[in-house]
Structure formats: C-alpha cells, structure tokens
C-alpha cells in the first residue's frame, strides 16, 4: 500500500513550489481564482488537499475565507512559511474523512488530486465528505485530466507525455485497476547529488468523466458545468482535462 506521507515528503513539498513558473504562473492562477471566487460568492471555501497554498492563498486575497484539508505534514509546513493559521486554517488528515467545518459555499479539489486516491471507494468517499462540508446548494469543483488511453499503441502499456531537455515524463497504465503510474525522469549532465539521472514515481487512479459524475450523484450532487479549462472553454471529445462544477442538490 502506498504511504502518502512518504510520497509527499519534505523534498516533494520543496519541489512543488515553483513561483512564477508552471502551474504558479499568473496565466494559470488568475482564471482559476476568478472562477472559484465567483462560485464561493459571499461564503467561505474549503480546499481539499490544500498543499502549499498555491490556490488557497491567492483566493483568500480576493476576500474569500479559505480553510484547507491536507494529509502531508511537509506540505502544511511549507504553507505555514507563507501564511499563518489565522489566515488559512488547515486540518491535517485524509480528504475522504477529515472535517474542516460545515456550511461552506464552496469545496474544491484541483490539479488532478482526486486521482491520488487509489480506489474507487476512496474517491466516492471524497465526494461524500465534500457534501458534508457544504451548505445546501453549495458547489464542489474538481479539476481532473482525461485518461489518454487512445494514445496507447497496440500491445503497449505506456505513453511519453513530456519530452524536453532534462526531463522526461512516462505514464504506464494498468487498465484492469485503472491505475496509472507517472515516471518522472530528471537527467544530467550531472544533478546536485552527483548522479546523472533521478527517477521519481507517483501513482494515480484515473477516472472517466462519466464515472466521476456517477460518484457525484451517489453523494447528492448534480453536474452543473463542465469546461475544458478554467477559462470556461468548451469541453469536447479532444479535451485532455476538465473542470467540473457539481451542485449539492440533496443532503
């Protein structure tokens, strides 16, 4: 069984933050925060897997009260270097069961993190926990990638997702369990530890959009909107990711 605390350790927390680059760029964060702020309205929000505060901090700066749930001690420590508990209170625990309060207007889970839960049962419980946090009519927003099984060549179980100088990302699939392992290869000429290459692996359970919708229904949600990205661009058969907004319609 995967030890998530070991997976998201101090080194992972340190590498996660890339200010001004990648998913920390204004081009990524601005539309994300805009959508979440509009959905929260005048009410509070809770982020499942708040991490180091990539989204929670700028969202709180718009005036939305933000709380968080986070399993990793290392991620919480990194967040605390930026803001105190009075600004963004965080409950340490599993997002399938940890409780950060009730009557939130918005719960959100971004950047594919629901896939870190490696069984369907855990993913369903995550939706149910979101429902417990929300006021009637509240929203649960999930950002998730679309499984790229069409990219698999016949007889092969892996795809090269990123190939660039110094970095290679290879995903390998187990279609029976819906598990995908991302292999992150960072290479030379020589890394800081003296080696020429370093391999890190992260496991996920991929979810089809229709399966995600059924999980939502089991927890009392209905799908309100689905976009290809935070800019609200249309979701199509060619979209590689989606932002799905679920409305709590029954307790």
> Can you write the helix and strand succession as a string?
HHHEHEHEEHEEEEEHEE
Shape: globular
Average pLDDT over all residues: 91
C-alpha-based Rg, rounded:
18 Å
Strand order of the largest sheet: 3-2-1-4-5-11-10
- Report the total helices: 7
**Biggest beta sheet attributes:** 7 strands, mixed
| Beginning-to-end CA distance, first to last residue | 33 Å
Share of residues in strands: 25-35%
Q: Helix coverage percent of residues?
A: 25-40%
Low-confidence stretches: none
**Topology, number of strands:** 11
What structural class do you assign from the helix and strand content? alpha/beta
Give an account of the 3D structure:
There is one protein chain. The protein has 251 residues and is of the alpha/beta class. The chain has 7 helices and 11 strands. Helix content is 25%, strand content 31%. The mean pLDDT is 91.
Note the main attributes of this structure.
alpha/beta; 7-stranded mixed beta sheet; 7 helices; 11 strands; 25% helix; globular
Describe the structure concisely.
The chain is of the alpha/beta class and 251 residues long. It has helices spanning 4-7, 10-16, 26-40, 56-60, 73-80, 120-133, 209-218; strands at 45-48, 66-70, 90-92, 104-109, 134-145, 158-164, 167-174, 179-187, 197-205, 221-227, 241-248.
